[in-house]
Amino acid sequence: MKYLFSFLLLVSLVHLGYSQEDQIITTEGDTLMCEITRITDEFIHFSVFDSKTGIILMRSRLPLSGVHSYTQSKVTPSGEGQESKQPTSSETDNLPVEPDFSDDLSPPNYRLSFNGGYTFQWGGYEGLPDSYRRQVQSLWHVGGELHYFTSENFGLGFKYNRIATQANEDFSPQLGRLFGFNALRDEKIRFNYIGLSFMGRQFLYDNEIVYYFLSLGMIEYRTDLLGDGVPYFQQGETFGVNLGFKYDFLFNKSIGVGIGIEINLSSLSQINDNGTVRPADFNISRVDLTAGIRIFN
Hints:
By secondary structure, the protein is mostly beta strands. The chain has 4 helices and 16 strands. The protein is elongated and about 80 Å long. A hairpin with a 4-residue loop joins β8 (about 140-150) and β9. The two termini are about 25 Å apart. The longest helix has 13 residues, at about 1-15. Helices cover about 10% and strands about 60% of the residues. Strands 7-8-9-10-11-12-13-16 form an 8-stranded antiparallel beta barrel. A 6-stranded antiparallel β-sheet has the order 4-3-2-1-5-6.
């Protein structure tokens, strides 16, 4: 919150030319020129504008516990300013309220997310034909997350992802001797990830939230195929680290949509190769581009 406020303070000082006639003074003595849009029992909400275009640069809020005083220039119909640390009923009655958000809005405690999207696996298939690599390194994923926020900015939960793709390829005689077959058909590659997730969040505004997270868990890998018509499989499991950023837009207090980018770091040190366990150095790290539905409570 401190870094966000420092950024907003800098932006407001640079763009004082626009009609940002409201003022917030924090308990630390900092002054923010802005437009106060709403006051609740816990927060004071405001916007910072571009001085030339009038475009909103940032919407945010500050806890009233960190506000020493504020001045509003357009609280009453007559336009007379008022200054107060705590909101009064006359102030909140004259402030605009966004649809589907009431003045007693509090941050949701639970976040349930259903995700899907594109996955790129950047390692593990060095030296193989480009046509094959394009098939096995481009995957699709579906999954879900459930987090409980113990405070406004920190949550703990679980995360699950299933990643899959399929491929067909005809190898050269040289590669065929290496693999033991020349024609690969109906290869189905699957990853399952489940882990504990630590998530932080920052409110850009009531209905816009940015998340950053770290997840630690287990990854299960399996591939099944027909090599020259003969069934063949590989499988293994390992520890994985998952981290990234997400952005949610809330339609109301209960539902929204979101996007995100995730990096997954993991490598298989041994693998079950068609029934024979052997050492391996198989990099299964990947990048996920995700989108989905969010449910809040």
